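Could you please consider the sequence and fold following this short note?
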Amino acid sequence: AAWEAGLSREAYSRRFRRIHGMPPETHNLLVRLNDARRGLRAGEPIAVVAADTGFADQSHLGRMFRRLFGVTPGRYRAG
C-alpha cells in the first residue's frame, strides 16, 4: 500500500495513523477480528474461522479475540 501511495513505509504509517487514529497493523487486526466475529455468528468452527481470517491457529485467534472483545470465541459464538 505504501508503494501505491508513493510513500515510504514509515511515511505511510504516520499518515495512516494521523487519518485513522491507529497504525495500519492495528487496523488490519481489527478487520480480521471483525471478520472472525461474522464467521462465528454464522456457526463456523473456530479452527476454520481462525484459518480463514489469517490467524496462525485457533489459540492465536482466541488470545487476540479475548484481548479485544473480553470473551473467548467459543463464548461469543454461544451468545
